[in-house]
Amino acid sequence: MREVIEVRKTDLLDFLTKKGKILPDKIPSSADAKTIKDTAKQLAQLVHEICGDPNKALPISNELSGKMSLSEIIEKGGAVCRHRSLLYQVLAYEIGLNVRTVKGSTNGGNHAWNEIILPSGEIMIVDNMNPERANPFSRTYKDLEGNVRYNPMPFVTFIGGVK
Q1: Which string of DSSP letters, residue by residue, matches 9-20?
Q2: Which residue spans within 79-122 are E strands per DSSP?
Q3: What is the pTM of this model?
Q4: List of domains in the chain
Q5: In angstroms, how far is the first alpha carbon of the chain from the final one?
Q6: Which of 6, 25, 149, 155 is most buried, by the most CB atoms less than 10 A from its CB?
Q7: How far apart are CA 45 and CA 161, in angstroms?
């Protein structure tokens, strides 16, 4: 059986309120790249605070089947890359970021992450499972067909999950 993740935006926003978390301000359509990047980083920090240390995600996430809400998965401590990326996307839409979730692989394993598209066309990778490292581009991000996604990478910025 496949995992079905039910996303109810109002439930997620209520969940944030109960946890005492506040979304960053909405992005005006005229926002510059620095404002967008700063807000994207704030949102990555918020997702990290909500979901906790990615290295401590409970193994229930790989045993899930049937229908569960995203809020339930997060509350049980089982949020892995696909759940964190989905949460990031829902919250990013709520504050006006141009975001997409990407499914693929990195360093040999299935993975999901987000991309923020800046007005210039620059892509900002938001990987909520991989804390920032000295060289985050040591990871190879591939799409579902196995094609390297960011090569060359002159217009890519990386934000890892915040420690």
Answers
A1: HHHHHHHHHHTT
A2: 99-106, 109-117
A3: 0.84
A4: 3-161 (3.10.620)
A5: 34
A6: 149
A7: 7
